[in-house]
Design goal:
- The protein has 445 residues and is α/β, with parallel strands linked by helices.
- It contains 16 helices and 24 strands.
- An eight-stranded mixed β-sheet has the order 13-12-11-10-14-19-23-24, with helices on both faces.
- Helix 9 links the parallel strand 10 and strand 11.
- The longest helix has 13 residues.
Length: 445
């Protein structure tokens, strides 16, 4: 049987494909832009005939029908490796549950059978002449997840770009149970416009950057502001090695700032593991020989990052305390995002010979009643999850400056942290530091 005959044999209606799911199964949607929208809707339509089906996903970018159509969770339980804005609402409503993980280890959870998979459903690009489907925008932990699956269903979409990979970037028609076809638009995450605070924070980081660095940045207003600064600067020959590729990188490629020529590892190639952004970004990646996807176990491995001598990691956080503990995923016990790869990159950047890591946030936030609160706390007491421990706290950044914390005793840490707090809260923080015995009497006020 040739590949086209095999494809035709395995091509079924979406309703037929999801019949493979049975009570008690674990169904995996992979992550981000691999979300199989058509299959999800068809599975949700079986809500009255299924029970105790557990669905796993991460960073949902469209409403999830197994959640939307089953509000009482009689048929489906939705589980998340990482939370988007949509997911945060689901978790707030008790309609989704977070699975704590660290990104470099995520694939091993499948390999070690901590994360069972009965049915995998993923979005892929159309089959090529050799019978292969590209995973497109999501490499991540895809291969480990598929290797663990009892059954595999592909949702083929013409819009999914073909992305070349270092490894684990495609699957053959012979390895799948069913194929369905869809014409849904891909999940997108348009760049948010940077605020004035974002711009100020970016300006505080910019002086630490120089020609030839390899850059990892997160997603959001501040990375976009930093991208604009770099794009309009004299910096050159920047490299890309990142967990998540967003529109901030597209801006740098278009400005000719990213060449990857100075990288000691994967020279001449930009490397990422997952991508979400605009349609323009996806079109840029399609058949782009200059960029490679790679598994998260490689991209986020501190040993990999160590080999990128001039590595700079820039990510966001939610709050920190006077000891240097950093929370980047919860507000109290409320799940906001996830651990993701923050600790991976903080660790790897420290190991790199000239590496630098920055964790950035605004110094304050305003609650729904209009009251202003400091993001720098005396200590964490409300159940906030510590993402980066004080033993690995890197350079912290707010609109008031940069505080480098590595190697500092508690009194110096407290002084450095308070120096980047909002002025309205500094006296309170000093009093707290004194009470907590981490304020030296001769410290400046």
């Amino acid at each position: 049987m040739n590949i086209y005959e095999e494809y035709k044999k395995k091509l079924v209606s979406v309703e037929e494909a999801v019949k493979i799911v049975k009570d008690g199964d674990w169904v995996d949607y992979s992550q981000c832009c691999s979300f199989p929208e058509t299959l999800d809707a068809a599975l949700a339509a079986r809500k009255d005939e299924l029970r105790d089906v557990k669905v796993r996903n991460a960073i949902s970018m469209k409403p999830i029908q197994v959640v939307e159509q089953d509000p009482e969770q009689k048929a489906f339980t939705y589980n998340l490796w990482h939370c988007s804005g949509i997911d945060r609402k689901y978790v707030d409503q008790g309609r989704a549950f977070y699975s704590p993980m660290i990104f470099r280890n995520c694939g091993s959870y499948y390999q070690k059978k901590f994360a069972p998979v009965n049915v995998a459903m993923i979005l892929v690009s159309p089959m090529d002449k050799h019978g292969y489907f590209s995973y497109g925008l999501t490499n991540c932990c895809m291969q480990e997840m598929l290797d663990a699956a009892d059954h595999i269903i592909l949702e083929v979409n013409q819009a999914m770009p073909v992305v070349y990979g270092m490894e684990c970037d495609h699957i053959h028609i012979s390895e799948v149970d069913y194929v369905v076809e869809s014409d849904k638009s891909l999940c997108i995450a348009p760049s948010s416009a940077p605020s004035e605070l974002d711009k100020k924070i970016a300006e505080n980081i910019f002086p630490y950057l120089y020609d030839g660095i390899t850059l990892q940045i997160g997603i959001g207003g501040m990375p976009n502001a930093l991208g604009t600064l770099i794009a309009t600067s004299d910096l050159k020959d920047i490299g890309m090695h990142t967990e998540l590729m967003s529109d901030g990188y597209l801006k740098l490629y278009e400005a000719g700032k990213i060449t990857n020529k100075k990288k000691l590892l994967n020279r001449g190639k930009g490397v990422f593991s997952i991508c979400n952004g605009s349609e323009e970004l996806y079109q840029f990646l399609d058949h782009n020989i200059d960029i490679l996807s790679a598994p998260m176990r490689y991209v986020n491995n501190p040993e990999t990052i160590r080999q990128l001598d001039h590595f700079v990691s820039i990510n966001g956080c939610i709050a920190m305390d006077l000891y240097g503990q950093v929370c980047s995923e919860t507000s109290g016990t409320r799940q906001i995002s996830g651990t993701g790869g923050q600790l991976d990159f903080v660790t790897g950047a420290y190991m790199a010979e000239h590496g630098q890591a920055f964790l950035a946030m605004s110094s304050t936030y305003q609650d729904k009643n209009g009251e202003v609160h400091s993001r720098i706390l005396p200590k964490f007491t409300n159940g906030d999850v510590i993402t980066t421990p004080r033993t690995q706290a890197p350079s912290m950044v707010t609109e008031y400056g940069v505080a480098q914390l590595s190697g500092l005793p508690t009194w110096q840490r407290a002084e450095a942290v308070i120096s980047i707090a909002h002025p309205d809260f500094r006296d309170m923080l000093i009093r707290a530091a004194e009470q907590q015995k981490i304020w030296r009497k001769s410290n400046k006020r």
